[in-house]
Design a protein that fits this description.
Layout lengths: L1 E3 L10 H19 L8 E2 L6 H4 L5 H9 L4 H7 L5 H24 L1 E4 L20 H11 L6 E5 L6 H7 L5 E8 L12 E5 L5 H19 L3 E5 L17 H17 L4 E4 L8 H19 L2
Parallel strand pairs: 1-2, 1-3, 3-8, 4-5, 4-7, 5-6, 7-8
Helix pairs in contact: 1-10, 5-6, 8-9, 9-10
């Protein structure tokens, strides 16, 4: 299985960016330590090009990001300061999901050790998301005639508003979001299938709801490629999650999603999504579980 990464090992960030991004370097380190991915299959992605980004984002927004012309309010909405490194990192995070899709079409399963930037909308970024990697990758696969119908399965605890907005009215990209209903974003754009969960949901109800929604989504979408945004933030210990899902429950979630896609013969590119536990080791544990499940199915 191939994995794509871009963390401080590749592209050092200014100090003010490093805390929220620390989990990615830790995840890459642990993936290598546990031999989940061979060293030769750990790949630095290409940066997404302007052409690829502009299939999903407005030209004016892209130009403002590129030259650092975002307003204070726009930067605050994204959640971290502008820098040239941030721009390059955001391009490569989208490039990593493109590359993971390409690898999945060949090998069945591949992972982006970051990504899941599902709050980035057509004309703005928000919620630590600059460019929408899932939408960009989906449209790139279609432009190459490598996939006709694509499903984005989003289990991050926050609704995938940006992906829904960008792909609204496009019957070839199906968006399914399972999320906390009373959580960010407070303005939610409608996905093709949204399931909003009340605060405090635990493992059994979560997994039962996911299984039902996943089967509905796959029937409705009839896809030939899947992008799965896993998310570490449904975890009971997450500061921003409001759900009560255990690490074991999240591992079962990953097995349910990736296993079901495997049974359907669907290639899947996996992106990590959010995670905001106080202990970064907990976030890395959950993302690592996702990579482990993906690696197991890539060997079947």
């Amino acid at each position: 299985m191939k994995a794509f990464y871009c963390d401080d090992f590749v592209l050092p960030l200014p100090p003010e960016h490093r805390f929220p991004m620390r989990k990615y370097a830790l995840l890459r380190q642990r993936v290598l330590e546990e031999n989940l991915v061979a060293l030769d299959d750990m790949c630095i992605p290409d940066a997404a090009t302007d052409e690829q980004i502009l299939r999903c984002h407005d030209w004016e927004y892209l130009e403002k990001v590129k030259i650092g012309a975002l307003t204070i309010q726009e930067i605050r909405r994204i959640g971290f300061p502008w820098s040239l490194q941030m721009v390059e990192r955001s391009r490569r995070a989208s490039g990593a999901t493109i590359d993971a899709c390409l690898a999945a079409l060949t090998h069945g399963t591949a992972v982006n050790l970051a990504g899941g930037t599902h709050h980035a909308c057509r004309d703005h970024g928000e919620g630590f998301c600059v460019f929408n990697d899932a939408a960009i990758a989906a449209r790139e696969m279609q432009s190459r005639n490598l996939a006709r119908r694509i499903i984005v399965i989003d289990c991050d605890v926050h609704q995938g508003n940006g992906t829904a907005q960008i792909t609204a009215g496009d019957p070839t990209i199906f968006t399914f979001s399972l999320h906390g209903e009373k959580n960010f974003p407070f303005r939610k754009f409608a996905s093709d299938l949204d399931i909003g969960l009340p605060n405090g949901v635990k493992d059994d109800e979560y997994l039962e709801t996911l299984e039902e929604g996943l089967n509905r989504a796959l029937f409705m979408a009839n896809p030939d490629l899947a992008i799965y945004i896993s998310g570490a933030d449904p975890f009971i210990g997450d500061r921003l999650g409001k759900l009560c899902i255990s690490k074991e429950g999240l591992a079962l979630r990953d097995d349910l999603v990736i296993g079901t896609l495997h049974q359907f013969g669907l290639p899947v590119a996996v992106a990590m999504g959010g995670g905001y536990a106080d202990n970064v080791e907990d976030i890395a544990d959950i993302h690592l579980q996702t990579v482990k499940v993906a690696a197991e199915y890539s060997r079947k």
